Amino acid sequence: MNNSVTNTARLLGAGLRALLVLTLVTGVIYPLVVTGIAQGLFNSTANGSQVKDHTGKVVGSSLIGQSYNLPLKNGEETPAPDLKWFQGRPQNGLGTNSVNTQYKLILSGATNRSGDDDELIQWVKDAKAAVVKDNSTADHKVEQAEVPADAVTSSGSGLDPDISPQYADIQVHRIAEKNGLPVAQVQKLVDDHTEGRTLGFIGEPRVNVLELNIALKDLLAKS
Q: 3-state DSSP call for residue 60?
């Protein structure tokens, strides 16, 4: 009887010690080590790839696209784009949170429509017409053939932060006209913020819209 109680107590003690050690290792030491490595070697990525303006204020993430729209007017369901700023890709795949309405959330997602879907085809046609209309100025006419695919289609997430250099280029004249800037100055902004393929061969050249608009805001402040 005594041996049985002693063995049980010894096993319980061993189990308790193992629990404490594993809790310390996996619950304290390991998270601290991983967090320290992440903060030391990948600080920006570990903290959400935050983008700051010239004042140091965090204005977004380089990984998440933002909308640049005018305030909703009475009777409007969809806000109009604020054409003083560079525009990103369409966000047709985004949804709204209808389950827990305590939080006002935007749900990321794709349209999940096939290439021959009538509604998708109409979206593309309407988007192309809007791009041509919005970006044509008194001294520069945008042709439909110039409109790239990313200007009229949303990404898989609906939150793509980048656009193609071609889409940024066709917005240059409109940005210059709306803000009273020289076209060459706006074009230089685009060129300076155009990133090449990752490692020289992965992906496509791209322009981060948030970072480009921050640079535009700084330029306007100086002007």
A: strand
E strand or H helix at 51:
strand 50-52
41 and 94 Cβ atoms separated by less than 8 Å: no
Give strand pairing partners of 198: 202
Backbone angles phi, psi at 55, to 5 degrees: -90, -5
220, 178 Cβ separation under 8 angstroms: no
Task: Please write the tens of the pLDDT for every residue from 181-219.
Answer: 999 999 999 999 999 999 989 999 999 999 999 999 999
CA distance 91 to 87: 11
Measuring CA to CA, which residue among 184, 158, 160 is closest to residue 172?
Answer: 184
Q: What is the chain's length? A: 223
